[in-house]
Amino acid sequence: MKARYFSFMLLACSTVLLQAEESLKEFSSTNIPHLASVTQQIGRDLEHFTEAATETKANEPYQPYIISVLDGKRLEKLGISTLGEALELIPGVDIATDLMDMKTPIFRGSNPLAFGQVKLLIDGILANDTFIDGFASYHYMPIEVIKRIEVVRGPGSKTDGINAYAGSIQVITYAEEIGEPLNRVFAKTGSYNALAVGFTSSATEGKLRIHADGYYQKDKKTLYAGPDAAATGIYNYQTPFYTIDNTALAQSGDAPLQTTTYALGLQLDYDAFSFKARGNSYTHGSAYGLNGLLPQDDDRIEMPAYLLELGWDKHFGDLEAVIKIGAKYDSLSGDARSVPAGFELPSLSDPLHEKVTFTDGFYGIHQADQRSFYQSAYLKYSGVDNHQITIGYRLSREETYNIVTITTDRDTGIGLVDYTDTLPFFDIDAKRDTAMFSLQDQMEIGTKLGILYGINIEKTSLSKIQYDPRISFVYQSDMQRIFKAIYSHSHRNPSWQELYTLNNAARVGNTDLKPETVDAFELAFIQKFSGSSYLQADVFYLINKDQIDKNNALHLYLNNHNTDIYGFELETSTQILPHDQLYASYSYVDGSDDQGNPLANVAQHLAKASYLYKFSPELSAGTVLKYVGSKSRIEGDQRDDTPSYFTADLSAHYQNPARQFNVTASVKNLADADVVYPSEPNTYTNDYPQDGRTFLLTLSKEF
């Protein structure tokens, strides 16, 4: 988005630069003809710089969103290794996980029982997978390939045609790099036998610009967990003809959390055209078991994803046309033991009268392949004084095109049977068409007030029309003080998992689900100090309706509750000493559902800080501190609240400018604090454990 909220200083500087450009043109044409090509290049560079400045952090406080920006190079010096680690620094953001260890960020307490609350965009392409509407594999994306992370808290997105419910994350790689191309390689090693290598490289030839990045990451991580769900009695059965008691088969042990990732990204820009492609092959241990029963060491899930997009972005005077066409392919597959040896379950053909003993355990091979196609077109017109009007549409189709369901024979407990046609774990006919139309006007009233207003209108083949209006006011009282007032309405469409899961007692899909909706009211104040120092404070009130979960006896996904959420966030970036930088935040969130129950699985208090001190141009040291408060349980869960925790990380960074290499050593969770994420009811009694003290060493070199 071409933002229009400039500071007076940026406007003045731009004017001076443009005047200098005109002078150079006149001078070159009359005195030194061979400078004409140089002047043209200067003009292109100035245009590129000015456009980039309006789209990036230079005017971030003036954008009509509550936004935080993290710089990749600073994150490296702090010892932050991945995108997932970086997101934990954002105010109001906590992390949740599930039985498959699919981590997801929770913004301001919005429904931690579901995925899809947040959208991830990598260089403008939506990266959420189709199956669970998450992006767990990209949590492992190395920070070395990321130039900047822009996080919008609250509904809305900076990218045309992408609707976000609780927040959006924009990952900008070095494909955006201004100036000299960056060519770099890096390697990492650390705890859990972790190893990562990668590169980022750019080249320019005339109008053609090429950027590529890639990485390989692997570890052998396990964490002790248990007792598993069998201990809760959920897998005990009683009929008039038999009794099943699997409690004695409950297990504790090392949960397989090992990860292997291969990823490659490519971007080609030529004149008005762009081509973007990204592939990500992700294999993870089966974690805590699909059904809450501890899996074997080598059980795994795979979630490959491939993104493709062709774009055309052309200016015609005051009119800009942006057309995109793209495709996304992703898959979820698993090869695992679902229940241990000796487990008893009701038979498939006669569950009332007969039970089956799975002497060797129950094994399953499952796979669901999805593909999505989309096309969008947007016109942006700035020919009306003090207005930028955007109008456009986005069309998409999501569909499942392949299903595999092979399991142990459910009647004999012996051998494997292909149930793909008779008892598939997922609906092979899963499909959704979506049409979105949007209209937006970004206007300026004088030099101090900016207003953005507009509406998205969306219709899917599975739900009625959704209307998502938005209006934002940004008032700049002077050079240092900025006020924002925002109202927005948004929705989240149910994920594939919530809609189409079949023949699984632990999760039951429901095609009658309605979209979740939210009305968000936000106020913010920003006090700018010298340089990059600022203080930002915001308050929010969220009215959430038709929230989706499966917290019921049938484990059926339902629009189960409404919640009202309110809170505030404080964020500051400043200097204490001449050669340091402090970034700190505090967040408070509270609320209740329509039954008067407190927010479940939500920490009321989040406090975070990162501090970087530069001893010399070559040497710096940093620390990252995080406090996460306790979390209430879901209604009916009698366990004590999830305990609060505090972690401290330390890092040291050495940079050799002459030879262009960097070394970073870090220790995470220095005091080895006990960190857990809440487990679902009737799964693991002792929640999901997270990393204790770990170590990491990173080497990188630029060319």
Question: What is the fold's blueprint, element by element?
Answer:
Layout: H1 8-30, H2 36-55, E1 66-71, H3 72-77, H4 83-87, E2 93-96, E3 104-107, E4 118-122, E5 125-126, E6 146-153, E7 167-173, E8 184-190, E9 194-205, E10 208-218, E11 222-225, E12 237-239, E13 242-244, E14 253-256, E15 259-270, E16 273-285, E17 300-302, E18 305-316, E19 319-339, E20 343-346, E21 355-358, E22 362-381, E23 387-408, E24 416-418, E25 431-445, E26 449-460, E27 463-476, E28 481-492, H5 496-500, E29 516-528, E30 534-549, E31 558-574, E32 580-593, E33 605-614, E34 619-628, E35 645-656, E36 661-668, E37 676-677, E38 688-689, E39 694-702
Parallel strand pairs: 4-7
Antiparallel strand pairs: 1-6, 2-3, 4-5, 6-7, 8-9, 8-39, 9-10, 10-15, 11-14, 12-13, 15-16, 16-17, 16-18, 17-19, 18-19, 19-22, 20-21, 22-23, 23-24, 23-25, 25-26, 26-27, 27-28, 28-29, 29-30, 30-31, 31-32, 32-33, 33-34, 34-35, 35-36, 36-39, 37-38
Helix pairs in contact: 1-2
Question: What does this protein structure show overall?
Answer:
- This protein is mostly beta strands and 703 residues long.
- The chain folds into 2 domains: 1-55; 56-702, Maltoporin, Chain A, CATH 2.40.170.
- The protein has 5 helices and 39 strands.
- The protein has a 24-stranded antiparallel beta sheet that branches. A 5-stranded mixed beta sheet has the order 1-6-7-4-5.
- A hairpin with a 4-residue loop joins strand 35 and strand 36.
- Mean pLDDT is 90; it is low at 1-58.
